[in-house]
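Our consortium's second objective concerns turning raw sequence data into structural hypotheses that experimental partners can test. To show how far this objective has progressed, the report includes one record in full. It was chosen at random from the queue rather than selected for favorable results. The single chain below, 554 residues long, was entered without modification.
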Amino acid sequence: MISASRGPSARPRDAGPPIGAAWIEAPCPVLVIDRHGRLVGANEAARLLLPAAAPGDEPHTGVPPWLAEAHLRTGGLPDASAGPPAGEIGHRHFVAHPTPGAADDVVWWLVEETGRRRAEAALSRARQRSEVLAEVSSTLLSTLNAPRCMEVTASLAAEHLADAAVVVAPPQGRSHPLTFARRGGPVTRTTRSVDVAGVPGLAEALQGFPPVPARWINPDDLPSWTVPEGFTGPVGSVIVAPLPGHGVPAGALILLRSGTEQVFTEGEESFARLFAARAGAALSAARLYSEQAAITATLLRDLLPPALSDVHGVEYAGGYRAAQDHDRVGGDFYDVHPGADPGEETLVVLGDVAGKGLDAAVLTGKIRNTLHALLPLAQDHQRVLNLLNGALLSSHHKRFATLVLASVRRHGDRTRIRMTSAGHLPPLIIRTDGTVEEAPTRGTLVGALPTVTAHTVHTELGPGETCLLYTDGITEARGGPLGDDMFGEDRLRQALSECAGMPPEAVVERVRMLVAQWLGTGRHDDIAAVAISARPAGPPAGDGPAGGPPRRSA
């Protein structure tokens, strides 16, 4: 573009540039400024934008200050390092691009970028909110602890959405769990009986109804319990948003801004609802996990092997390891049912259900419960096994099991045992001289054939001798130097021969340790073992520590 040339004399104030100059018809505002910063001319668009500007005006009079300063600083030459000057004119944003004119004049083309700037600002806000939502999702979903999830929700809401936040959980009886957070302050939790009807929209939010617009809520109507301790200034604006869960509301979120802060905009209310949706989903998942974990723990209490101790002068110890390290139950099990008095037998049961994992554990629980109901018939092992066999055959389970029953009673300084195997490995007996004997009991497995055939054997344990009942997870454990050799019965016998005179806890622990070393990191079946020991000769019962039986260390 070319500016009209000027003579040596100054142009009069009311004399505009010559008609016909190209910039006059430009659709964008154009200002022509001489080398001293005085306004030489302006087109129609510029006069509409700057109605007070007139040719001949001194710098900073008719020309926007930011443009005058840039003109005097650069002389109208483009500054590649700083870029074109830009600034506000009447709440509108312009970028000025210079073009050399006649003589030393510079033609400044003002290109409006208000719309672009607003779009960039909106895009930046959207990106920030997306980052916040991503942070919310990753942080909340990283924990399945419901109280911790409420703390994180309140803390993030106070940091990104308001000056303070309150998470109101569904009622527990007549009280509501409350979590308070304020920006820069600690997060506190409490359970309190509050009147949710006193907060406009809170009762509806707790039932999952859509939120009440913030402009409908008068901050002066808020009860004192909604304001976190340490909140400065009066409440100026409030949002109450539901925390939607998986079909059931997970609670409600109250956002507070102080009176000195701006009120919530429509966009901020929408963002708060998105935040609440993410938080509600995480809270609902955490509560669902907590409920399922509580149910699982309740069920596991009946499936886990019991802790064993001395019964009627006989020492017992047990050990169990599930096939999968992350499982706590499986297909192997054991139980010890004490006799009513020292003159009655104690029934010891150890079994192995076909399979592993939770499915096998379910059948294990059924077998244990059935055997518990058959305790009055425990004197007749054959009858107990046949009744259990019938119960399994009539159930929907298609698995079978092997069992070994041992009825134990102390007689003087010796311990008498009746043992019956139903398809299970015969027990091993450790004598005081290190000899390891096999109890010659045999039988057919349970839950596969119409009847169970079994042979019962009798044996006695002298003081310090032990009988070990175990599952095939021990002898069939594969490992060793090449990783594929079975532990085998010979290695087990050798290990037991070295356990002569040890207490039952030490025997079981040594077997478990050796098998674990043999396995290394390899896969294995369920492993279970029960040791029955006759108390060695020594002080009578009651002479041990705290009036209990004397104990020995391995």
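The partners drew two points from this record. The longest strand covers residues 401-411. The chain is about 30% helix and 25% strand. Both points have been shared with the crystallography group to help prioritize constructs.
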